[in-house]
Design a protein that fits this description.
This protein has three domains: 55 residues, no CATH class; 50 residues; 186 residues, Protein-Tyrosine Phosphatase, Chain A (Alpha-Beta Complex). Helix 4 packs across helix 6. The chain contains ten helices and 13 strands. The radius of gyration is 46 Å and the shape is elongated. By secondary structure, the chain is of the alpha+beta class. Strand 10 and strand 11 form a beta hairpin. InterPro entries: Prot-tyrosine_phosphatase-like, Protein-Tyr_Phosphatase, PTP_cat. Pfam families: Y_phosphatase. One of its GO terms (molecular function) is protein tyrosine phosphatase activity.
């Protein structure tokens, strides 16, 4: 029955029946009707009372449920308390203890992992591995993967110790094709400072030693801008290099991997004039011959011959044909042995030290 309905409002209906039909009502019927209306009125009053009590109980129950989850402030003591404070305190204490145990377990696992990694780094070889023992060496590390991780962590530690700290390297955006790949301070190539440009000594290039001599190679990035183009040829001239090895395509999958920094006939790049004398195209590489000229105020006009070995079959994210790659290295070795030059071989690809590492003997 809807809340707030008062059944006593129907009593006048029963009491007015006698007024509506006086000609058919006898005394016996009138007494019965009066008793019936009286009973109905009493029943309506009881139902209304029960309904009011039920509504009050429901409201009281809802209010008590709200109070169980509401923190109240006592105006006398000015302390917060809750109707179920002991249960809430117990729940919070249990949660805090669980978090403390999980944190302690995590710290224990981290400490154990650090100890294992430190032992693995100490087990990393400091000398070259004998070829006869190489298979057994790799097999052992496949069984214990933590040893491989130790060698990797040793590389990361050496990188962190030798990272670039030069402020110039991080600010020369026009000379860094990839800002996140910078040369180290201890082996980066330093050019002569040009008048009027105090940062002209910087170029994104690094020396690499060989088994025979130090600074046998120079690895650098791909040329992407005109400023980098001029700096590249200035580096070739200052280093006295007569051999350039290019291990990337100019275009690969409709993307520019490296700018064509050499001219078809001749062009001027800063103080250096570059002239293409000869181009020989083979199945997997192209060999070009350049003549570099520079006018010196003391020595006059100087010229040099530079060979350019361009490997054209190294696609993006792949490995080249082994036979073609070995043939390219053989041609480079023949040229350097014939020239008897102590100048480094300049090697570059799209990124610094990406494909170049596979070229070094």
């Amino acid at each position: 029955m809807p809340e707030g309905l008062n059944l006593s409002q129907f009593l006048p209906v029963f009491t007015s029946i006698r007024d509506l039909q006086p000609w058919t009502m006898d005394k016996g019927s009138e007494r019965r009707l009066t008793r019936t209306s009286s009973k109905v009125g009493d029943t309506a009053v009881k139902l209304n009372r029960n309904l009011s009590q039920s509504t009050m109980r429901r409201k009281s129950r809802s209010q008590s449920m709200v109070e169980q989850h509401t923190v109240q402030t006592d105006p006398k003591t000015r302390k917060t308390h809750s109707s179920n404070e002991p249960g809430l305190r117990s729940m919070l204490y249990g949660l805090a203890m669980k978090m403390e145990k999980e944190e302690a377990a995590m710290k224990k696992r981290q400490k154990k992992q650090l100890v294992q990694e430190e032992k693995a780094m100490q087990a990393a070889p400091s000398q070259p591995i004998d070829a006869a023992k190489f298979v057994a060496y790799v097999t052992e590390r496949r069984k214990k993967r933590i040893l491989f991780k130790g060698e990797y962590l040793m590389i990361q530690r050496s990188i962190d110790m030798q990272k670039c700290r030069s402020d110039v390297a991080s600010t020369m955006d026009d000379r860094n094709a990839y800002p996140d790949t910078l040369p180290y301070d201890y082996n980066r190539v330093i050019l002569h400072t040009m008048p009027g440009d105090e940062n002209s000594h910087y170029i994104n290039a690094s020396y690499v030693n060989s088994w025979v001599r130090e600074k046998a190679y120079v690895v650098t990035q791909a040329v992407k801008t005109k400023a980098a183009n001029a700096e590249f040829w200035r580096m070739i001239w200052e280093l006295g290099s007569n051999c350039i090895v290019m291990l990337t395509k100019v275009f690969d999958f409709m993307r520019v991997m490296c700018a064509q920094y050499w001219p078809i006939t001749s062009a001027q790049f800063g103080e250096i004039e570059v002239e293409t004398l000869e181009t020989k195209t083979y199945a997997h590489f192209v060999i070009r011959t350049f003549r570099l000229k520079r006018l010196d105020e003391y020595k006059g006009l100087e010229s040099r011959i530079v060979k350019h070995f361009h490997f054209t079959e190294w696609e993006l994210d792949s490995f080249p044909y082994i036979s073609a790659f070995i043939e390219l290295r053989r041609r480079v070795r023949q040229h350097t042995e014939k020239c008897f030059a102590d100048a480094p071989i300049v090697v570059h690809c799209r990124l610094v030290a990406n494909n170049e590492l596979r070229f070094f003997p």
